[in-house]
Structures are given as C-alpha cells and as structure tokens.
User: Fold this.
Amino acid sequence: MRKLPLAVSALLLSAIGVQAGAGQRYTTTQGPACRDVSRKHMTLRVCPGAGGYEVTLADEGNVAAVTFTRAGHDRTNGPTAAWRAAGDVFGKLIEWRIGRDGRPYAAILRTWESGDRDEPIAFLRVFALNATLACEYGKVMGSRSNANAEAAWLSDQAARHDCSKPPPETFAVTRDVLMPKHGHQEKLRYENAELTPMFVKTF
Assistant:
C-alpha cells in the first residue's frame, strides 16, 4: 500500500480535527498522585485526570479495566473498557486531548492485552469524553510506526461521538494505514467478533 509523505499526513490530520488545536495534557497512572484502593486479588488505583475526571485502573491478573468518571457523577455504570490483561497492563501516562473551550474531549491510554498465543500486545486505546459520560472509541496497535498520529486522528473523531448512543463501530487499526482517501472510509473486515465489534479501517 502506498504511504503518504509525512508532511501530507500531518496536513490531513490537522484538517480533520474538530476541536484539535488547543493542546494536550498528561497525567500519571501511578505514584503518589493516585489513591491505592486495592482489594484482595485486585490491584485498584484512582488517579486524578484533566477537566475534573478521575481514572480508576483495575487489574485482577487475567482481566484489566479502566473507568473514566467525572467528579460528582455516577460511578456504578461499570468500566469504560475491559480487556484480557498482559504485560505491563497500563502505560504510565494518559494523554488528554483538550478542546478550544479548555475541556478534554478524548483521552489516549497505552495498554497491553493478551494475544491469541497469550503474548502481550500494546495498544493505544482512545476514549471519547462527553459532559457526563465516557466510552471507548477505538484502539491502535502500539507497534505501528505512526501509532501516535493515528491515535490522535481517532481522538479527533471521538470528539463527535455521543457516548449515550451505541457506537456505530469501534475502530481497530492493526496493519492498515489510517489516512483519508477520497473523503470516505472503507470497511475491510470484521474481527474479534466474540469480544466487541472492531472494524479494521483503511483509507
């Protein structure tokens, strides 16, 4: 597949973003800033995020989960995302994508999940952040050469997503180049149907 020049890729990424442009903020997923509320057989941390969010990170050995919650809002809706844990499980930092109004509209977290042969696979998970709700929007395989730019592109698409509605699809970017082509997106194939609807996208 023909790769686009880096300069063209950057131009396309900047043109697509709806709220992009205000910047990013980074918060930690470990250390003294986080509260350790671990239970028997489960490591549990609650860490402060951007824009009044708190992030709960849970790891019980086989399954990991992350929950994004706005301060003062319901915490009983279950995790924002869960997966089969492997490797380091959680990255050390969360990237918050900040809109022009100063509020976060998306977050990116590196995670490790178990592959088909139980090998750890790194992903950049992208979460949409609404006024009171958060949901997983997609993920990018961390080993991809443009993984950071692709996750940023997904985060700008997440700015449009209403988490109170079922997502039309979840993007799983693995082997294909995530760039626009003729202004439309092509659905290639369905995979991981037993876990969650994940469509590999190419452009």
Summary: The mean pLDDT is 76. The longest helix spans residues 147-158.
